[in-house]
Write a structure and sequence with these properties.
The complex is a heterodimer of chains A (121) and B (106). By secondary structure, chain A is mostly beta strands. Chain A has no helices and eleven strands. Classes of the chains: A mainly beta (121), B mainly beta (106).
């Protein structure tokens, strides 16, 4: 069964840092671009950022609200991506989901999501 | 940024009803649109990609239509497990953006 499992969430103070992890299983992890999406309590979905695969030299893109504070990385040998969050503020309080993009050429949609991990600032 | 607008934040329906949820993009996104279902405490689930294509394993009662700026998700006969919140999402350009969601309630 293909799945994504996020971990690392918790309660932190404003200004502190936190690192989230997302581990995949049941599929060829390194083939996929991977994204982080977050959802503040009672709110809608907000895209955070993306890391592409080795073929695209692990290129990253970020939402303006997190650029310069958040960093996405990956370790395909561990089938994992990471979200390093710095200078956290109350506006970063949310459930953080990782999402997999389809590996089919010219498709850029999400086809698998994790359950999420809650970050409270 | 491309703004995605779902005009209805919620709608009430009954089992067996035909339900349509609309989404409008602030600029042309061609068919770079997905529909995502979310239930409380569960992982979001992608239903439709490229505006009208069903993700693998999604029941055929879900149908996506539209292109350009106006899109619709139609559920032909609402089932009990379909009561959820539905989001549209564009992936034409960064930043990726989502509609505000439409909650389908009993």
């Amino acid at each position: 069964e293909m799945q994504l499992v996020e971990s690392g969430g918790g309660l932190v103070q404003s200004g502190e840092s936190l690192r989230l992890s997302c581990e995949g299983s049941g599929f060829i992890f390194g083939a996929h671009y991977m994204d982080w999406v977050r959802q503040a309590p009672g709110k809608g979905l907000e895209w955070v950022g993306r890391i592409e695969n080795r073929g695209q030299r692990f290129n990253t893109e970020y939402a303006a609200s997190v650029r310069g504070r958040f960093t996405i990385s990956r370790d395909d040998s561990k089938m994992s991506i990471y979200l390093q969050m710095r200078r956290l503020t109350t506006a970063d309080t949310a459930v953080y989901f990782c999402a997999r993009l389809s590996a089919v050429p010219r498709r850029y949609d999400f086809d698998l999501w994790g359950l999420g991990t809650l970050v409270t600032v | 940024d491309i703004q995605m607008t779902q005009s209805a934040s919620s709608l009430s329906a009954s089992v067996g009803d035909r339900v349509s949820i609309t989404c409008r993009a602030s600029q042309v996104i061609f068919d770079s649109l997905a529909w995502i279902q979310q239930k409380p405490g569960e992982a979001p689930k992608s239903l439709i990609y490229d505006a009208s294509n069903l993700q693998s394993g999604v029941p055929s009662r879900f149908r996506g239509s539209g292109s350009g700026t106006d899109f619709t998700l139609t559920i032909s006969s609402l089932q009990p497990e379909d009561f959820a919140t539905y989001y549209c999402q564009q992936y034409k350009t960064f930043p990726l953006t989502f509609g505000g969601g439409t909650k389908v309630e009993i």
